[in-house]
Write a structure and sequence with these properties.
The chain folds into three domains: 69 residues, Elongation Factor Tu (Ef-tu), domain 3 (Beta Barrel), CATH 2.40.30; 266 residues, Rossmann fold; 85 residues, no CATH class. Helices cover 32% and strands 24% of the residues. The chain has eleven helices and 22 strands. The strands form four sheets. Strands 10, 14, 15, 16, 17, 18, 19, 20, 21 and 22 form a ten-stranded mixed β-sheet that branches. The longest helix has 23 residues. The N and C termini lie far apart (88 Å). The N terminus is likely disordered.
Length: 440
Amino acid sequence: MDSKAFQKIYTKINQITKATCSLKATGIGYEELAVIHGKLAQVVKIIGDMVTLQVFGGTEGIPTNAEVSFLGKAPSLKVSEDLAGRFFNAYGDPIDGGPAIEGEEREIGGPSINPVRRKQPSELIATGIAGIDLNNTLVSGQKIPFFADPDQPFNQVMAMVALRAKTDKIILGGMGLTNDDYLFYKNVFDNAGTLDRIISFVNTTEDPPAERLLVPDMALTAAEYFAVDKNETVLVLLTDMTLYADALSIVSNRMDQIPSKDSMPGSLYSDLAKIYEKAVQFPSGGSITIIAVTTLSGGDITHAIPDNTGYITEGQLFLRRDSDIGKVIVDPFRSLSRLKQLVIGKKTREDHPQVMNTAVRLFADAANAKTKLENGFDLTDYDRRSLDYAKDYSRKLLAIDVNIDIDEMLDTGWNLFQKYFKLEELGIKQELTDKYWKKN
């Protein structure tokens, strides 16, 4: 072993697998970075003096006498106000042609916030998407995934949320984005003139899959800087967590760990929780809210990835194509925000809970009427009205391209009730109908 300016250098590798190299080394830290034969690697296992490194670009072409130099540090990110408006790769290096960031260097992947320092979330995060704000209102410090089939336009939805959300900073963590997706985000942010509050960490399909494992930690380290140091409200958008979990699976399988359900590593729950539990509302006013995308395979929510995610997060948002109107909607039956009761009717207008519940109940009546129709039963007058209402409700409120504020969503709800139903069919408290039901 030679020592070069604080770096430990070794030249004997004991074992090489598809993704890892193992060698004897001392004084090495867990998650420490190293360079092997010019490729970046990270310590993933230490038993005695045997150290195993995951090689991000794969081990092809690495000889057993390759030079291994340990960098003496875990992956880190330089944080400062200069991060805003920039695009970075999984290592935090700029990929937008701009200058390197000057700032304080912070290790990524630190522990979650101590529960004593957390405050119960109580601030509304408005996205402008009625299927979220009206039916599944988001609260600062919440963690919630979109469950979507791979052919759903979830990247468009994430971009819309980024442009419309009323927060100080938006941080995008893109894992396994196609080049088209990456350019789509870049163009949308550029053209909207909102780039100054958006920070993006991107791993594309052309980058090694193992690099995806760094992206959420990079995004959350930046988020903690703005939420903790600057008391800002931060929204973190992570897409696609299924590709993140697939990368975990690739690495653990190559390390010969015995896979658990659906060929995922046994540590999947804690790996996901480590990310999602960074969502927090601080007493000082800063907050980190996490919206993630989990793509489903054939709509299967029992797969280990969505299954584990559902236990950790506070609800989920379901995207589906509504064949009646030919648009993608936020499905009111399968979506759920477990924290919405903390803000609806408190931070929003008093009629919000009743309008929300009534609108979804009438939508359910329309679903029953549709079943009757498909099975050849006669429809009542009420059934026909509810079917017409459902199309209008989907088009004007559930479709993801609807961009209005919450008061306008509530007014739209009242207008739809009035158009299709009699007052006594709604079952809404009289003091609210007296105030909001327009007398013709």
